[in-house]
Amino acid sequence: MQLGVDQSVPLTDTPNLPRIPPELLWGVIGYAWRSEMPPRDRNSFFERNLRVNTRWTAAFLRLSGADVYISTQSFMEFYFSLLRGQPLVSKFLHSQSRHTLNHLCTSVTVDIINDRVQIELQTEEPEREKLLSDFLYRVKVLEALPNLKHLNARFQNVACDDLFRFNRLVDFPKQVESLSLGYTFKAHGFCLPQHMIETPPGAYHPFAIFEYLVGTRTSPNWPLSAQRYGHWRWILVYFGTLGYDNV
């Protein structure tokens, strides 16, 4: 089973398990940790795995430390306390293990979830949405996670009009090689708020569409969220194939 973790890292803090073979232990924990689950369930799963026994906990931290999931401020604080070796959690890891945990991380997924969609354009960044910028700031200040290569930011019910708004990526780590962004909207009877997809005046006029298609009219400066739709949205809306409010 491919676990996506360098198993050559010695488990110096994990004695030989008399009952469960180490390969099986790593396989069970790795499969469960990488399964899709809501952030609340993942945090609960993380907490419960620290209560099994010291051997299980040491193996779990090695595996979960490679693919880190951050979904709340409290869990982010706990994760960095692991790296700092604060007394509350230092019983799980010796100094060498904390060093290994810091260098083991290659992927981080940050989940930013709002209970409902903000219909009106926000002038200030909502508290929950500060999670990404706060995490990146911690990584920068602590000079942590030197082997972090992949950053995955998943937004739910978060406006996608401008990624760089509120300076969310101002502390983007230099060691990261790939950035993945995902936006989902979950609400009963929800249509994407109009302010997320700005439309230039006269965009749906037939002559404007014709000029754009033949190349005599340049594309307007769409906001970041609108780049996904491009000129196809003009055509679909004009011919009635797709309603604007449902794009």
UniProtKB/TrEMBL annotation:
Q: Domain of life, per the record? A: Eukaryota
Q: Under which name does UniProt file this protein? A: Uncharacterized protein
Q: What is the originating organism of this protein?
A: Coprinopsis marcescibilis (Agaric fungus)
